[in-house]
Structure formats: C-alpha cells, structure tokens
Design a protein that fits this description.
4 helices, single chain, elongated, mainly alpha
C-alpha cells in the first residue's frame, strides 16, 4: 500500500508526462531518457495523458479521412 502511495506522489510535471507519452506514440526514445521516466513519472498522469493523446490521434485521423473522402 505504501509503495502505491509513493509511486503516485512522484514529482514529474504533467507536461513532462505528455512529452514522454508523445515520444512513446512516435516509438523513439533514448534508453537513458526511458530509465529516467520510469523513475520519475506518475502512473496516473501517464494514463490520463495516454487517453487524451489517443483520443486526439483518432479525431485527427477521422478529420483527415473526412477531408480526403470529401474531395
């Protein structure tokens, strides 16, 4: 229980979390940056940022398809 509380109290900002999630969507990450992220990222922020990024990705794809099909 204390481990879970400690993990959710990590200090990395939400902006840094979004950056790490976007790099993971791209699929390129330095090993040293990955290791730093695993030590400092708040898992709750990662989940929230991942869901938001996935929704924005799907909306972007739908918009692109709509524009292409409309022509």
């Amino acid at each position: 229980m204390d481990d879970l509380k400690e993990v959710t109290q990590r200090k990395m900002s939400f902006g840094a979390t979004v950056k790490a999630v976007l790099w993971s969507f791209f699929g390129v990450r330095k090993k040293s940056a990955y290791e730093e992220d695993t030590q400092n990222l708040n898992p709750v922020h990662v989940i929230i940022a991942g869901i938001i990024a996935a929704i924005l990705f799907v909306i972007t794809l739908l918009a692109v398809v709509k524009v292409v099909v409309a022509k």
